[in-house]
From TrEMBL:
Residues 1-27 form the signal peptide. Residues 35-186 form the Peptidase metallopeptidase domain. GO terms for molecular function: metallopeptidase activity. It comes from Lactiplantibacillus dongliensis. InterPro entries: MetalloPept_cat_dom_sf, Pept_M10_metallopeptidase, Pept_M10A, Peptidase_Metallo. Its EC number is 3.4.24.-. This is Matrixin family metalloprotease. Keywords: Hydrolase, Metal-binding, Metalloprotease, Protease, Signal, Zinc. Pfam families: Peptidase_M10. It comes from the Bacteria.
Length: 192
């Protein structure tokens, strides 16, 4: 009788542990996906095409956060020599409907990014009452697209679609650190 009860207890514990470990493995494996495109080097130059000091400060905080990871670098460029344009828009219709930000990328036939434009959508950010911290997270998200990160299902990732509360997380840093082992392929437009 004791043996049967002990076996039952062990079986129940095994099932419980299996379910919990499965959840832990699943959560940790929800790494941020990386696109098939990437930059030739883990750095890009940028310029601001916005006169707003407020939005420049938001972009600067997001750039500082990505540069702090150590695996990709955003470097100030010049009006004639840059890879990425950081700007804002007041558009709210069409592809901009309800978005907080949008990133456009271009790549060559080999699959390397050649340029990118990031737009933070000021009217939508105001309409949906994004705080300054929320706006920095949106800028971090959009710069993640510039790097080559795609939307993530990980609830802690800065690359989660419709993100406004998450900063750059470990899963995002890991994906960027592994960017050099990713294959080069096709892509073009990254939303939100």
């Amino acid at each position: 009788m004791k043996r049967k009860r002990m076996r039952l207890v062990l079986m129940v514990l095994t099932v419980i542990l299996s379910l919990n470990l499965g959840s832990i493995v699943e959560a940790s494996s929800a790494a941020t996906p990386f696109s098939s495109h990437r930059w030739r080097q883990p750095e890009v130059t940028y310029v601001f095409k916005t006169k707003s000091n407020y939005y420049r400060s938001i972009y600067k905080k997001a750039i500082k956060a990505w540069n702090k990871t150590g695996d990709f670098k955003f470097i100030a460029g010049t009006s004639k020599d840059h890879d990425v344009v950081l700007t804002t828009s007041t558009a709210t219709t069409g592809k901009y409907n309800m978005l907080a930000g949008i990133t456009f990328t271009k790549a060559n036939s080999v699959g390397y990014f050649t340029s990118a434009t990031v737009k933070l959508l000021r009217k939508n950010l105001a309409t949906y009452k994004y705080s300054k911290a929320d706006r920095v997270h949106v800028a971090e998200h959009e710069l993640g697209h510039v790097i080559g990160l795609q939307h993530s299902t990980n609830s802690h990732s800065v690359m989660m679609a419709n993100n406004r509360y998450n900063a750059i997380a470990g899963v995002d840093k890991t994906a960027v650190a592994k960017r050099d082992i990713m294959a080069v392929g096709k892509s073009s437009l990254s939303l939100q």
